[in-house]
Write a structure and sequence with these properties.
Length: 316
C-alpha cells in the first residue's frame, strides 16, 4: 500500500510539472523556442515580398530563431489571411500584407474571417496611392482632367481592385461624368497603359514613382490623406472636395489572442525590424515609400475606422 501511495505521488508530481511546463504562461515566457513562420500575401519577387523578407531577416537576428517566409498570394491577401486566422495564437505564425486585406475585403467579397479576428502588430511603410496619367496626356491637373472628360464624353480608368473601382463610381457620380473602368492586374501594367495612352488615367499604389520627372507619368491627384512626398505640389483628393481619402500601409498581423508576454516580445522585435537599416533603405530609398511604423494600438484603431468606412460604403 505504501509503495502504491509513493507511486501515485510521483505520478502526480510529474503531471503537475508537465502541466506547468506546457501552460500558456510558461510557454510564453520561453518564446521563441522554435522557428517562426511569416505568411506573405504577395507573390515572390516583388517589392512587397522583398520588404517582407528583409523584415524576416531582421527578426531572425533579434529573436535568435529562423523566420520562414511562405508566399501565400491570392485574392488581394485573402488566401494569406484565411490561413493566418486558422493558425494557433502562439506567436509562431504572423502575416504580412496591406491593410485592405483586413479592413476592406471582408465587405467586398465573402471571407472566412472578419477584421476583429486578428491582433494587429505594426505598419512598415505607407503606400503612395495616386491617380496617374501618361506624360503626354492633354491634362495635368484634376480640373483639366474633368474638363477633358466632359469634352471627350468620359474617361477610361485603370482599376487595381474593387476599392479603386468603387472610387471610379464615386468620381462618375459626384462629377457627373462617364468613367469606363478597366480591371488591370498589377501596378506596372497600369503604368504601361497610361504611358501608351491606352488608358486616360489609372490608380497606382506607388509604382509610378519610378516614372516621374519626365520619365513618362504624372500625378493628377494624391489619394492619401496627405500630399505625397514625391509629388508635394499635387493636391490630395480631400483638397479636391471628396469626403474620404485612401491612405494604406504594408503591415503585420497575427491570430487574435496571443499571450501578453509573447505579444510584447513580438511587438518589440517587429518595431526594431521595421526601423532597421536595410528595411528603411529599401522603403525610403528604393521603393520611395515613407517608413511609417504605426504601433499596434494606432494600427488597430486605424483598421477599426477604415472597416467602418468600407462597410458603410460597400453596403450602399
Amino acid at each position: 500500500m505504501r509503495l502504491i501511495k509513493h507511486c501515485a505521488a510521483a505520478v502526480l508530481a510529474v503531471c503537475t510539472l508537465t502541466a506547468m511546463t506546457l501552460s500558456p504562461s510558461a510557454t510564453a515566457d520561453q518564446w521563441p523556442s522554435k522557428p517562426i513562420t511569416l505568411l506573405v500575401g504577395f507573390s515572390a519577387g516583388g517589392g512587397a515580398d522583398t520588404l517582407a523578407r528583409l523584415m524576416a531577416r531582421a527578426l531572425e537576428e533579434d529573436l535568435g530563431q529562423p523566420v520562414v517566409v511562405e508566399n501565400k498570394a491570392g485574392g488581394g491577401g485573402v488566401v494569406m489571411a484565411t490561413l493566418l486566422q486558422r493558425a494557433p495564437a502562439d506567436g509562431y505564425t504572423i502575416g504580412f500584407t496591406s491593410d485592405s486585406t483586413f479592413d476592406a475585403l471582408p465587405f467586398i467579397v465573402r471571407t472566412a474571417y472578419q477584421p476583429d479576428d486578428f491582433d494587429y502588430l505594426a505598419t512598415v511603410t505607407e503606400l503612395q496611392n495616386a491617380l496617374v496619367a501618361g506624360a503626354s496626356a492633354p491634362f495635368s491637373t484634376w480640373e483639366e482632367m474633368l474638363a477633358y472628360a466632359r469634352e471627350q464624353g468620359g474617361l477610361t480608368f485603370g482599376s487595381l481592385s474593387p476599392i479603386t473601382t468603387k472610387f471610379a463610381e464615386r468620381l462618375a457620380k459626384q462629377e457627373d461624368i462617364r468613367v469606363r473602368t478597366v480591371p488591370i492586374k498589377g501596378g506596372r501594367q497600369i503604368i504601361t497603359d497610361v504611358m501608351g495612352r491606352h488608358l486616360d488615367v489609372g490608380w497606382s499604389a506607388g509604382v509610378h514613382q519610378a516614372y516621374l520627372n519626365d520619365q513618362g507619368v504624372k500625378v493628377i491627384v494624391a489619394m492619401n490623406s496627405e500630399r505625397l512626398r514625391t509629388s508635394p505640389d499635387v493636391p490630395t483628393i480631400r483638397e479636391q472636395g471628396y469626403d474620404r481619402s485612401y491612405t494604406s500601409y504594408f503591415m503585420l498581423a497575427a491570430p487574435k489572442g496571443i499571450p501578453a508576454p509573447t505579444r510584447e516580445k513580438l511587438l518589440a522585435a517587429i518595431r526594431k525590424a521595421a526601423t532597421s537599416k536595410d528595411v528603411v533603405n529599401l522603403a525610403e530609398e528604393k521603393m520611395k515609400f515613407p517608413n511609417v511604423v504605426l504601433p499596434a494600438e494606432k494600427l488597430t484603431r486605424f483598421i477599426q475606422l477604415r472597416s467602418a468606412d468600407n462597410e458603410r460604403e460597400f453596403s450602399e
